[in-house]
Amino acid sequence: MGGSRRQIKKRQQDVVRFLEANRIEFEEVDITMSEEKRQWMYKNIPEDRQPAQGNPLPPQIFSDDRYCGDYDCFFESKESNTVFSFLGLKPSLAPKES
């Protein structure tokens, strides 16, 4: 069941790349390095969003303490251009040119 480590890594990179490209501030948390952070993540994913079996796999996306969703939710919001509302952010209206 679940994704391979390589698939998880790729999904994490997808999310990180998107956030960086859109200049969205974020903190990447590696739950493999911290039991405390892993427990926090499990505890803060709503009951109805937990997988039927086993633990939720990273990446899981939070905005502060508010659960946004997993990679599939993120991907759907990216496809439908609703990532900002998915993340609970206001779209940045900064001009594109630098």
Automatic annotation (TrEMBL):
GO terms for molecular function: SH3 domain binding. CDD domains: GRX_SH3BGR. The keyword Flavoprotein does not apply. Its main location: nucleus. InterPro entries: Glut_rich_SH3-bd (IPR006993), SH3BGR (IPR051033), Thioredoxin-like_sf (IPR036249). Gene3D superfamilies: Glutaredoxin. One of its GO terms (cellular component) is cytoplasm. Keywords: Nucleus, SH3-binding. It is found in: Nucleus. It comes from the Eukaryota. Belongs to the SH3BGR family. This is SH3 domain-binding glutamic acid-rich-like protein. It comes from Meleagris gallopavo.
